[in-house]
Design a protein that fits this description.
25% helix, binds coenzyme A, Aminopeptidase, single chain, 33% strand, 2 domains, eight-stranded mixed sheet
Length: 323
């Protein structure tokens, strides 16, 4: 058991758990967060120490969720742990638990290198996050912010993050030949890949600052996707890719979506250059880019693979924040 002195915040007191505490949190707690009056159990934490690194599991009572208590508990526990000589505090929430990942990031835990296969307490894949004493008290820096109000919209189309309940529409879309034939690798994904993308990968990639995959919605539901990929914050660049279902084409939706995502990339993400690659024969996509201010920069020889093992030439287009 890891022992710290009680920490009292404006919301709760974090103190040692009683030895005989019976809490349905899925682990033996070392610390509990109790209500200010001291009679309500709001949360629990387990701390496992090895070689100056403390590994944390945390839990908030179901009726207390939605108040960011998980992040507050992690933040309250960190100073006494660092003061006692701990070098690093880490946590490995399952990739399928966005609330836990976001709570850790709000408390300042920064993602390490990415997904740890089989690394979660439940045996599934985990995201590794760590906090060092020098990281400060604020939330972990994010390359890709959340969309203000949850969406980008121009009044005709709106863009919002892909969600678990998009699974059926996303599977139908991605396995439709007239959609996947235009993809970078012109093959349909497996059902498992679509499940994974909807359930956690799109959200985790966004939090890691790698890619922002959004659904294009015209008010009547899922019509296609647009994404910011290959995000390179250091040099201020990213690539876009987009697709619409056949019945949503020819209505200006792609043009609206490209304008919205580029404005977000420049104004909210802080990028300076957004580029796109099109097949040399894809006139519709080229027209969208021309209409939205992209300029043709050249031909990338053998830029994309074909299913027969040969390579296809692509046209490279780009738009800059200051043009
Ligand atoms: C993880 C846990 C402690 C978080 O509880 P909490 O502090 O009440 O969390 P909140 O409801 O305030 O949500 C935390 C964040 O996740 C977001 N979130 C919550 N549910 C979400 C969902 N289903 N999808 C996406 N985001 C979600 C919230 O919007 C919030 O985001 P923000 O801080 O960036 O604004 C709680 O869900 C829990 O006990 N889960 C079971 C145990 C567990 O998974 N522990 C972690 C193991 S290490």
């Amino acid at each position: 058991m890891y022992v710290i002195e009680p920490v009292t915040t404006a919301a709760f007191t974090l103190r040692q758990a009683d030895d005989d505490a019976k809490i349905e949190c899925g682990f033996e707690p070392d610390l509990v967060a109790v209500a200010p009056e001291g009679d309500g159990l709001w949360g629990a934490m387990r701390l496992t120490e090895a070689d100056g690194v403390v590994s944390v599991r945390f839990w908030v009572a179901p009726e207390q969720r939605g108040r960011k208590l998980g992040a507050a508990m992690l933040k309250a526990a960190a100073p006494p742990l660092f003061a006692s000589g701990v070098r690093r505090i880490e946590t490995r929430p399952p990739v399928r638990e966005p609330a836990a990942i976001r709570a850790a990031m709000r408390a300042g835990f920064r993602p390490d290198s990415g997904v740890i296969r089989g690394g979660a307490y439940d045996g599934g894949d985990a995201l590794g996050l760590g906090l060092l004493a020098g990281d400060g008290r604020g939330p972990a820096p994010r390359v890709l912010p959340d969309l203000a109000g949850g969406e980008l919209t121009d009044g005709t189309v709106s863009l919002r993050p892909l969600r678990p309940d998009d699974f059926e529409a996303h599977l139908r879309h991605r396995t439709s030949p007239d959609v996947y034939s235009g993809a970078a690798l012109p093959l349909p994904p497996s059902v498992g890949e679509v499940v994974e993308m909807c359930e956690w990968r799109a959200a985790v990639d966004w939090l890691l600052g790698r890619a922002a995959l959004m659904v294009i919605d015209d008010g009547a539901g899922y019509r296609g996707t647009i994404g910011l990929y290959d995000v390179a914050r250091l040099i201020g660049t990213a690539m876009i890719g987009y697709d619409l279902s056949a019945d949503a084409r020819g209505k200006g939706y792609a043009t609206g979506a490209v304008r919205l995502i580029c404005r977000w990339a420049f104004e909210e993400v802080g990028l300076d250059r957004v580029w796109a690659g099109t097949d040399v024969h894809n006139a519709a996509s080229q027209a969208v880019l021309r209409r939205t201010g992209f300029r043709l920069e050249g031909v990338e020889r053998g830029g994309l693979p074909s299913v027969d093992g040969t390579r296809r030439d692509t046209l490279v287009w780009a738009t800059l924040s200051r043009t």
